[in-house]
Structure formats: structure tokens, C-alpha cells
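Let us work through a complete example step by step.
Step 1: write down the sequence.
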Amino acid sequence: MRNILRGAAFGAVALLISLAAVAGATREQTQAQGQGAASPLMQEAQEGDYVAHDFHFKSGETMAELRLHYTTVGKPVKDASGKTTNAVMIMHGTTGSGRPFLGPGYGGKLFGAGQLLDVSKYFIILPDGIGHGKSSKPSDGMHAHFPQYDYDDMVAAQHEMLVNGLGVNHLRLVMGTSMGCMHSWVWLETYPDFMDAAMPLACLPVALVGRNRLWRKMVIDGIRTDPDWKGGDYTSEPQEALRIWADFLIVGGAAPLNAQKNLATREAVDKYEEDTVKRVMATADANDVMYAVNASRDYDPSPNLEKITAPVMFVNSSDDFINPPELGIAEREIKRVKRGKFVLIQATTETHGHGTHSMPDFWKDDLKEILEESQK
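Step 2: predict the structure and record it as C-alpha cells.
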């Protein structure tokens, strides 16, 4: 195994906050980064790559070199026994990356002096999952011949990157948004003694069926049936496939009260839709999207929830289209977690549906509670 660490000062970020929420990477980027100049945290951050050799996937496939990218802020601390005591890992959503968490709208509310995850005290780790960001992904060249990774593979790779790449053998807190929320549950069950606490935001700890699987299947089929996809070996992006992806991001991320308030005219709605579709299609890769969406296919932590030992603060939003509260799943399943608590954020004109996971103002008190609880 080898670890290549590079220092990096991130440039200015000029993404504007959208009027209504968009799920996944687009929502995370716009909300987490906020408006205006780049966060000072981006000047302090370190980027690096860990390369896992002969990485074995659950599918039976192997990659000779699997690149795992990460961003860190702060310095790790170990106790007298060599145990890492201050590491916090935050995992992103589908098609996202770790970097947006450094922006003013997220890191600016959590990582600063005196804040809950003050980087002078905590070592913040922001990984790019397999198939995402600057980690190995289909668009690097393998296209649709890339290994069929799933969430278990992504978590196993993160664990290897932490232990062998960063020398982190314990996490003070593991947390994540959307896909990262689901990864938190996988972490809790696969490595139950590796963390002091967990905070999953915007997901459910059960198999993805019903409407959640339905929209994913529609995106996957929309990509595969686009004649310009060409079995994944396209030389230019299949436009109709990407439009389907953009449309589902808008629908999945829309928050009714917020949209009704801020998209109050037909012209405003039309402009928002046109601008968002254009932005998503300009940056997305069809194979990367298809793999990322399909990685959830066998996710199901529900059989082993009783085996979780770490304290869990589980947070969802009542206006989340992707994880609708009327299912009652979160309330039911959290009772099986020995030290688990579920919080449902009530919808207002200021919440952003699924994207509320990247708005700390709505759940900072819950983060404070789980940090205090897990110190006991």
C-alpha cells in the first residue's frame, strides 16, 4: 500500500445557492459551499490519495490500483495507547465529494474556532467514495467495465484508507449525508468498535425498495436505453440520459413549502428548471451516475441493528421526498438500536427537503447532544 499526500489550497468557489433544493451532489455543493468567496478552511485543507493494491470487490472483481481521494483539516491526536481520539469522518451523498463540506454553509458553521467540530481540536476527514470525486471511477477510462462496486465495498475501502493511509485507528464520530448516511449504518455494523458515535442524516436503515428504488431504476434504465450511451463506450455524453438524471435530482430534492415560497411564479419555476438542468448536465458523467445510483442495490442494514453498540443520533426531515416520514420506518427501526435516538426536523419555508442534511443550523443541537452523550 502507498499513501501520497499532497498539500492543496483550494481556489475560490462561486456556486450560488439555488432557490429550491436539489438532491445529491448538486444540493450538497450549493448548500454546503454557500455564496461568495471560498471558506478560509479551504486554505488550510490537505488533499491526498491513498492507493489500495489488488482491491477485491464483493462482485468478485479486482482492481490492481484503486485510488481513494480524501481531504483533511486539523491534526490527528493519539492517546498513550496509540488510539486516535479526535478523528471525525463525514461522508457525502450520491455523485458528490468531500470537498463541499469545507464551504461556509457547512464547515463554516461547524469547523471554526469554538464551534462543535473546531478543527483546532478535531481531525476532520472528508473522503471521496469509490466512483466519486477524485477517487477511481468509471469515467477515468474503464467506462462501463469498471467493477460493480456497492456500499460495502465503499466502506471497506474507506476503512483501509483510514488505517493504512492516514494512520487513523479510531473515529470520535462518523457521520454522513444521504448516501453517506447509509454508509454510516454500514460502518456501525461492519466496524462496531471503530467509532465513539454516529450521526446519519437523511436516509433509512432498511433496504431501498418502493419509491426510493423506483426512481433509481428509472435513472439507470434511462441511461442504458439512450442510444448514445453505446454500452457505456460513448465518446460524448448521452444528453437525454443526463437530462433524466437532472430531472430526478430536481424532483427528489424539491421541498414543497420552500419551493412554493421561492418559486412563486411560472417564470421563476421555468428559469430554475432550465438553469439547474443545464448545470447538472454540464458536469455529470453518465457512467459515473449509473454506477453511483446502482451502488445501493443490496444495501440493507436492518437485520443487524440490534448489534450496534455505539450511540446513534439519526436525523431526517419531514419534507424529504426520498425518505418520506409517513412510512414510519425511522421511528420503528431506531427502537432496535440500543443507544439510538431519532430526530425528525419539521418542514418550514426555510428547510430544503432532502438537502436539509447539509444545513447545520437545523441539527447542530443534535450534534452537540451526541458528542456529549458519547463522552460518557
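Step 3: interpret the result. The chain is about 35% helix and 15% strand.
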